Amino acid sequence: MDTCTLEETVVAALEDIKAKDIEVIDTTRLTSLFDRIIIATGDSNRQTRALARNVHDKVREAGAPVVSMEGEETGEWVLVDLGDIVVHIMQPAIRSYYNLEELWAAPSTLRRGRAAASVAAQ
Fold first, then answer.
1. CB neighbour list of residue 40: distance below 8 Å, 6 or more residues apart
2. What is the spatial distance between Cα 11 and Cα 118, in angstroms, rounded to a whole number?
3. What pTM, to 2 d.p., does this model score?
C-alpha cells in the first residue's frame, strides 16, 4: 500500500473514534526511517486505546502490515508503527509535554494540520 493511501486510512480511522487535533507531518526530507508521523489526541486512556486499536484494525483490513503497537497498557501515549507511518496517540497533557510537533519541526510546506490539509485539497 502506498504512503498516501495508508495515511488516508489512518486519518479516517482516527476520525471514526473522534480523535482531536490530528496532525500529519511529512518526514521524507527529515529522516529515512519513515515517511510520515501522525499525531492525534484522545481525551482518556480508554479513548487513546480505542483509537490505536481502530487504526490497527483498519490498516489490517486494508491489507497493510502493522509492525508493532506500544503503550496500550497505560493508554497515556500509544504508538502504532506501520513502517512508513508512525502514529502517536496521546492524552492532552502528554502531547503538550513532549511536543513532538516542535521536535519534528519542518518548513510549513511539509507540515500540515487537518484543517490546512483540507484547504490544500480543494
1. 14, 19, 20, 21, 22, 23, 51, 87, 88, 89, 90
2. 12
3. 0.84
